[in-house]
Design brief:
The protein is an alpha+beta fold. It has a domain of 152 residues: Nuclear Transport Factor 2, Chain: A (Roll). The chain has four helices and eight strands; from the N terminus they run ααββααββββββ. It has a four-stranded antiparallel sheet. A four-stranded antiparallel sheet has the order 5-6-7-8.
C-alpha cells in the first residue's frame, strides 16, 4: 500500500512542475508581447515626433528672373503725375519743335538744293555752293540755331563742326554760303514730354525721348529761359 501512495505523490509533483513551467512560459510570452507593443507604440510616437519636426511641404516659389528694362538715363525723381506742369512744358516744346526740326534739316539733312558749283579748297576739303532762297550766309544758319539752342550749347556741342573748326559743315567762301560734303548722324528728339524733373521760371528739366539707331531711348532735356524765350541747353 505504501508504493501506490508514493507514486501518487510523485505524479502530483511532476504535474506541479509542468504547470509552473507552463505559467512561466506564458508570462514570458505576455511580457514579450507587451514589449513588442510598447516598442510599436514608441515607434509610432517617434514617427509622429519626426513628422511633426519636418517643415510643411509648401510649393517652392520660383522668383521671376525676367530682366528689368533699365533706361540709359537716370530718371529717378521724375514726376509724370503733375498734369499742370506737363501741360505747361508740352506747350513750350510744341512751340519749339518746328524750329528744332528746321535746324535738324539744315544740319543733318542738308539744304534742299545744291548748285552745280563745287569748290575744292587747298586742304582738299570739298564744298558745294548753296543755292537757296532762304539761307545765304553763316548768320542765317546761326540765327536758326540760336532760335532753338542756347549760345552755350551751340558753343560746346555744335560750333566746332557746324560753324567753325578746321572743316566746318557750313562755310562762306568768296562771299558764298557753302556746305561741306559730310555725313552727320542725327538722333532727333521726339515731341512728347514724358515727365517733369524740375521746373522754375528760369529753367526746366524734362524727361523726353530720342530716336537712335538702337531704338527709342529716354533722355533728360534741359531748357533755359533766355530773355523770355525758352531754349534747349542740353540733352
Amino acid at each position: 500500500m505504501s508504493k501506490p501512495k508514493s507514486f501518487f505523490l510523485y505524479a502530483i509533483c511532476v504535474s506541479a512542475v509542468i504547470l509552473a513551467v507552463s505559467c512561466s512560459n506564458k508570462n514570458k510570452h505576455n511580457d514579450e508581447s507587451r514589449t513588442r507593443d510598447n516598442v510599436s507604440v514608441n515607434n509610432n510616437d517617434t514617427s509622429k515626433s519626426i513628422l511633426s519636426d519636418l517643415p510643411s511641404l509648401v510649393p517652392t516659389h520660383i522668383p521671376d528672373k525676367s530682366p528689368e528694362i533699365t533706361p540709359m538715363t537716370d530718371i529717378s525723381g521724375i514726376s509724370g503725375e503733375n498734369d499742370e506742369e506737363i501741360k505747361k512744358a508740352q506747350k513750350i516744346i510744341d512751340d519749339l519743335m518746328p524750329l528744332y526740326r528746321e535746324m535738324n534739316r539744315l544740319i543733318y539733312g542738308g539744304l534742299d538744293t545744291y548748285s552745280e558749283e563745287i569748290i575744292e579748297e587747298e586742304s582738299g576739303h570739298i564744298y558745294f555752293v548753296v543755292k537757296d532762297n532762304k539761307y545765304s550766309s553763316i548768320d542765317d544758319i546761326r540765327s536758326v540755331m540760336e532760335n532753338v539752342l542756347t549760345k552755350d550749347f551751340i558753343s560746346h556741342s555744335y560750333y566746332n563742326w557746324v560753324l567753325g573748326g578746321d572743316y566746318p559743315y557750313f562755310k562762306e567762301i568768296d562771299g558764298k554760303l557753302c556746305v561741306a560734303m559730310l555725313d552727320a548722324v542725327s538722333t532727333p528728339l521726339l515731341s512728347e514730354v514724358k515727365g517733369v524733373n524740375q521746373m522754375s521760371e528760369s529753367e526746366m528739366v524734362l524727361l523726353m525721348q530720342e530716336d537712335t539707331d538702337d531704338g527709342i531711348k529716354d533722355v533728360l532735356v534741359t531748357l533755359k529761359n533766355v530773355d523770355g524765350n525758352w531754349r534747349i541747353d542740353s540733352y
